[in-house]
Amino acid sequence: MNMGSDVQSPARLRPFALAYSFIFAFLVLMFYSCVMTLSGVRGFVGGESSWSKAQKQAAGCLERFAVTGDESEMACYTRQSRIMHSGRLARLELAKRDPDMDSAYAYLVGADAHPDDVAAMAMVVRRMAWHPVLRNVMHTWAEADLEVASMDSLATQLTGLVRAGARHYDPTAHALLLDVRATDARLTVLENRFSQEVSGAARYIRNWILAGFALAALLLFSLAMFVSSRWIVAWRHAHRVSTDRAARMRAVAGAAAAVGGTNAVEELDVVLRAAIGKVIEGDMFTFGVYDAATHSFGFLAGLADGAIVPPVTVSAAGTPSERFLTDRSSILTHRSTDPEGFGSYQHGGPRRSESVIRSAMHSGSKLLGMIAIHSYTPHLYTDDDVEVIETL
User: Which of 40, 79, 264, 330 has CA atoms 20 to 30 A from the CA of 270?
Assistant: First the structure.
């Protein structure tokens, strides 16, 4: 059973292969984007935790410095504030039109982000900065940086007082400490908001990822159903063709037995006409005997358009049938305009044939004659019809 003329041909498979390739590439790209985006969001969650811890420790170190005057506490504040400043530098670098990504990565690592996450974090900022969800995150981040700058200003003033001999109970130092605590409280609010906004962004991205995978799955399913339906149609067509062909060949076998019992040309003409009429549709059957002496075909009487066509002799010279002297293969033409359709006028008929099958009859290397089936319908006959004629 051959379905090669339908969906198995490369030309017909190409659109499906391209569609599958596109969907597969889409899935791979989406999977990569999802992994990178979720890794970036995870990096922000971890970074927020480290940043918050550094901010709380910085505020605590500053208060203890005001109480004890211990320079190690100020060194502690400097270390923790360096983490917060590194985060600010990363944000400013990524906000540039053409950022230095190596510097941005280094700033993020300096802000205590995991090195494996910094590339994904930068990608999220660069590719999603336009979206309201991430825009809120970046706005909160910028507000927190302003509060950190305010705390640095308070730390500078407090450091000068403490190093000059003042302590936390000094009115000016006490007022500065109150401002430090107020700044710390505002930063706590911003940290909580930042955490909630990052979580909201993660949920938003998750929903889009699920929607994207659902869409891709639907596309794959639809394409699979479409291709499957094409295969089913092709299989049914091939099965029907195979069944019809088997029935035709059974009819041919019966006709062949009758052909073998003929003893005269006229009797053979009648048997062939009846046999072909059972298995092939046509408007006229012609049977010509080849005369080597005159290099012509003598066609027996026939019927065309309801009129009797008398016997006629047609020269083989210059006609497609002349090749039967050296070539046993049949001639199949689909239109009267085909080069091999030359000479396809129905003998005695007013119209020219469109679809024609011509098959030669040989005895050894000797050409005995030819049979032909004609139709006014273009593209009516197939290679299977040719096989039927040749079998007869």
Answer: 330
